[in-house]
Amino acid sequence: NFKEKDARELASVLENPLRTPVTIEETRSVSPTLGQDSIRSGIVSGLGGLALVMLFVFCYYRLAGLVALFGLLINIVLLFGMMSMFHFVLTLPGIAGIILTIGLAVDANVLLYERLREELAAGKSLGAALDGAYSKAFSAIFDANATTLITAGILFWQATGPVRGFSITLMLGIIASLFSAILFTRTAFRWMTALFGLKRLTMANLAPRRHFDFLGKRKLAVLVSVVLIGGSIVVFALRGANNFGIDFRGGDLLVLDSKPALSVDEARSAIAPLHLAEATIQLEQAGTQQMIAIRSGVDTSSRILDALQKSFPDRGITPAQQEKVGGQIGTEFAKKALLALGLGMVGILIFVTLRFEFSFAVGALVALLHDVIITAGVFSLTGGEFSLVMVGAILTIAGYSINDTIVVYDRIREGLRVGAGGGVEALMNRSINETLGRTMLTGGLTLLSVAALFFFGGAVLKDFAFAILIGILVGTYSSVFVASPIVLWCSKWGAKRAAAGKAVA
Q1: Tens of pLDDT, residues 19-56
Q2: Res. 233: pLDDT tops 90
Q3: Which residues face 291 on adjacent strands?
Q4: Cα–Cα distance for residue pair 464/468, rounded to 1 Å
Q5: Measured over all CA atoms, what is the biggest interatomic distance in the chain, rounded to whole angstroms?
Q6: Nearest CA to 356 among 295, 303, 413?
């Protein structure tokens, strides 16, 4: 929004009459063609994920699913309305945030409907069952979304640029989903029961009815987790600095478009006289186009581009994307990423302790670290590079992991309040089994929306989506086989200490 006079005055100031050296630490550019292609891919993946989720919800929950779909549409309208109201810019990671919101928004409806199924199975009328379902599910919905909101808020505070766009859409999406799932659907059911005489609801049920002894397998599960964590740390350590992209190491990224496309061997032979030993060259799929991506040291991309254009003058080589990050700002990004992750964990620890108790917070935090480390290890094993966008993915995994764990914790807390018998281990096993249907459905629906992002979101978001996919699978496992056993061990240890204290007294 600068006028020409303002721009010239600013340029004059930046010329720096004191002749103090000024260097550019970070630049990023993308061609209109690649930008449009990426946006198109993001929209296609978003619509694909939305269609898959809507189809499944409607087929599984039938009339109740239709109500949830209207709530989901209202959620999306509210999200875009709030973004427009506050003049937020939609970035490509922001589109990823919306797609993830689609999966997470259904979680509240799944929690409500699975509670409703239990209330109806207990022989209650539809009106009484709806009141009981919304009353009992509220605490789990609130706590689960609050923990995700904590991680998104810290990411917004610490992040810069496109990653901040992701955190904004995620925060607004959580707020909109709480409104649509709790207020809109409740009102819709009241209208249908009061005005149209709705008496019953039918739903499909794919969750197993058997009672599994999950905690009886806790020692085996711990062994599996220790092996996976150890392997992840070894893989990450062996790759070393190659785990990190230019956002953290500093350097240049040059993505080139040409017709016909350059091969890796052609590009390598053309830049060989430059003696850039640290340069890496690889093919990347950007939408429907195949391009060459070259990562090299700081301030080397212009020389690389000149060398390639001189070697292949008839190929029409043009830069589709250019990025430069200086070593100093790369270090700053790394510090902020670690700080964001650390603050997110502290925030979750405090919140879970206040809402439950310290042993629950310890279990949630260990499960979170378990998920982050294994996801990072798998991502490193597949040759991925950590960037600022990946920081968003890691914190999203942390939020999803806590979200899933909180639902199990809420059912355990409810059993403790009503004084369910059978001992702590039996109570926790029963709680895990009672929430198993919700865990399977929520994980599956979130996987559907993120899988659409992985397959159709384009090269820019493929790594992001892959990390989220791994995180969802590992997070679902950890909420059952990591967080709950730790709470059980802490409770037993606390009981032994209390008994020893009484014996001494």
Answers
A1: 556 677 777 777 666 666 666 776 777 677 778 878 88
A2: yes
A3: 284
A4: 6
A5: 90
A6: 413
Helix (H, G, I), strand (E, B) or coil at 195: coil
Q: What residues have CB less than 8 Å from 338, skipping those under 6 apart?
A: none
Counting other chains too, the contacts that 352-355 makes at CB distance below 8 Å and 24 or more residues apart are 352/147, 352/402, 352/406, 352/409, 355/143
Alpha helices, DSSP H, located in 179-217: 185-194
Residue 446 tokens read as: 């979130």
Residue with tokens 């392997």: 231
Residue range 334-346: average pLDDT?
A: 77
The tokens describing 92, both together, are 């490509």
The vertex-146 CA angle with 55 and 102, nearest 5°, equals 20
Checking phi first, is residue 322 left (phi over 0); if not, alpha (psi -120 to 50) or beta?
A: beta
Residue with tokens 């279990």: 363
For helices 358-381 and 218-239, what crossing angle results, to 10°? 50
Q: How far apart are the first and last CA of the chain?
A: 75
Give 271-318 pLDDT, tens digit per residue.
888 887 677 787 776 555 677 888 888 778 888 888 888 888 888 888
C-alpha to C-alpha distance for 56 and 61, rounded to whole angstroms: 8
Q: Is the distance from CB of 208 to CB of 436 less than 8 angstroms?
A: yes
- Counting other chains too, the contacts that 227-235 makes at CB distance below 8 Å and 24 or more residues apart are 228/374, 228/377, 229/370, 229/373, 229/374, 229/377, 231/377, 232/373, 232/374, 232/376, 232/377, 232/378, 232/380, 232/381, 233/373, 233/377, 235/377, 235/380, 235/381
Residues whose CB falls within 8 Å of the CB of residue 490, separated by 6 or more in sequence, listed in order: 359, 362, 363
- Tokens standing for residue 264: 């890796």
